[in-house]
Amino acid sequence: MPSFKVDPISRIEGHLKIECVIDRVPELNNEYFVKECRAPVTMFRGFEIFMVGRDPRDALLFTPRICGVCPNPHSITSAMALDDAFDAMPPPAAILIRNIEEAAYYLYDHLIHFYLLIGPELGVIMGPEYGAPILPPVAGREGLEKGIGTHYAKCVEIQRRANEVVALWGGKFPHVTNYYPGGVLVEPTLERISKTLAALVPVWEFIAITHIQDILNLIEANERLKDVTEVVLGARVGLEDIGFGNGNFLSFGMMPNIDDYESDWLDTSKRNNSLFRAGAFYDGSRHPLDENKITEDIKYSFYDGEDGLHPWDGVTIPNKDKPGAYSWTKAPRYNGEVFEVGPLARMLNTFGMEWRIPRIHPITGEDYGDFVYRVRNPKGSILDRVVARAACVLVIANKVFEYINELVSLVKEGRTEVMNNKPVPREAKGRGLWEAPRGALSHWVKISDYKISHYQCVVPGTWNWGPRDSRDRPGPGEAALQCGTTWVPRLNVIEIANALYDGWGDILAEALTRLNPKYANLNMEPTDGGEYVNATIALLVVRSFDPCLACGVHIITPSKKTYVFEVSHGLCSV
Does residue 238 lie in a domain region? Predict the structure, then answer.
């Protein structure tokens, strides 16, 4: 059977490649489909190693640098781990400030995924009427006047407004500086609150009106895709039929309620009253989270040690020459099973299989109608992940205004305390569990003689893009690619667009070749047999997870010399 690879994959954070064995399926017009896939993560993250021996508070400055795209989730997860270790419960105003800051961060992050990262592929599927606005503005100002890239360009403006709110409370972005064990280092003034409100109103309007309409258009265009696949493949295959897993979904919960923080949020087996709930969704229903069931395997990872260790006992001993290993990620498991994390897991654990989210303007009260969606594939899919991400962002956009109003009430009541300051403990341990945009994130710290003696991070990129485990089971990403329906066409993107909509490919060709003639063959990859195949659908599966692979330290060994690069936030050292 032939194979192809994509290395590196663009429009994701970090370094990931896919190696796919493909085979013809006689029942589907003898077209190629992915038979087997491995997804090596080709970078090494050494933060767990160099955190040891440092002041515990250094974790607040170091761990956000794990990722230049999602530093805020690492900031707050680290802060919560230290809250736990220091026995320092944040005051209500501090919890609200954390929620507002993280909400603004989420609005930025999820929007750029849809428009800037996965949008180019989705735009092709959606066609000239619906897809043109979400494509990159490849035809320049002239194209924008024709509607090509208008929503993409607007998203760039809107996500900046959301990030302004993050910086307003966090001091800067990326890598905020206001989180601290037991609270935050910023005061909740009415001026800061009013600036937050002014910045987020147009963000809500873009999300609730423009973004949700684009999602509804995608759902409609997906039916057109099934019409075409019925002709080409002899079967109706839509985005809800591609990229599925085993139906297991894990969420750690996020954005706690201040009224029951101690009784509900601090117990990770509850978290029933937070904006998004913690839980393990399997067999069609949610079950309480048990953090003791989290383990990591390393059979195919470039690490020495034992399989099945809990993060309290985990070690990070890199071995780039380990026989049989192919990835720098470990393979996390929950209760010994493979679990997917991310927006779909959050929505399923919080709302179940059917979601109804209001769209009521936070200032004018105008009702734009509920956004309603029922999960198409209970095992996950490209469509369900993309829609879940939009649903999450709408839920957060609604809720952030409630947090703002609660904070205003506290300020008016004079309850502006933001810090429960405790000294660094001599001996302690703590853990923080949170939802990063890509899914379940946890930090685990032990303190001995006032210094960090143990630090482990289990991040969404390892949950979704870990290699095979000790029982040779693929992780969620690899499983989704080799689920049996990842079509690998021999048509190029322009030919596929014309098959979907008459003349659509010609419009794309004109726009793309204006930049560079080679763009007419985007995503065309050579097989080891010399044939070219289209990796677009395989890349759609990858990008539906929005991979974020904890970039930071990378090791290469040219000419027997080792160079270590720190690249995630604009630094490069040798």
Answer: yes
The CATH number assigned to the domain holding 144 equals 1.10.645.10
Rounded to the nearest 5 percent, the helix, strand and coil shares of the chain are 45, 20, 35
Give yes or no for residue 565 having a pLDDT over 80. Answer: no
Radius of gyration (Cα) for the chain, nearest Å?
23
End-to-end Cα spacing for the chain: 42
- The two three-digit tokens of residue 374, written as one number: 């029922």
Residue 249, both tokens:
């979904």
What is the pLDDT at residue 522? 80
Measured in whole angstroms, the distance separating CA 354 from the mean position of its chain's CA atoms is 21
- pLDDT (tens digit per residue) in 338-374: 999 999 999 999 999 999 999 999 999 999 999 999 9
DSSP SS3 for 560: helix
Classified as helix, coil or strand, 565 is strand
Q: For residue 520, give the nearest of 140, 153, 114, 138 by alpha carbon.
A: 138
Query: Does an H or E element contain 354, and which?
Result: strand 354-357
Q: What is the pTM of this model?
A: 0.94
Return the pLDDT at 308.
98
Pairing assessment for the beta strands 487-488 and 451-458 based on DSSP bridges: unpaired
Domain for residue 131, yes or no? yes
Task: Quote the pLDDT of residue 551.
Answer: 46
- The 3-state secondary structure of 104-138, one letter per residue: HHHHHHHHHHHHHHCHHHHHHHHHHHHCHHHCCCC
**Euclidean distance between CA atoms 114 and 122, whole angstroms:** 9
- Reply yes or no: is the peptide bond before residue 8 cis, omega within 30 of 0: yes
Is residue 571 domain-resident? Answer: no
Number of folded domains in the chain?
A: 1
CA distance 293 to 299: 19
Within a domain: 573:
no
Asked whether 375 and 348 are in contact (CB, 8 A), the reply is yes
Phi-psi region of 425 (alpha: psi -120 to 50; beta: other; left: phi over 0): beta
Domain extent at residue 409: 3-566
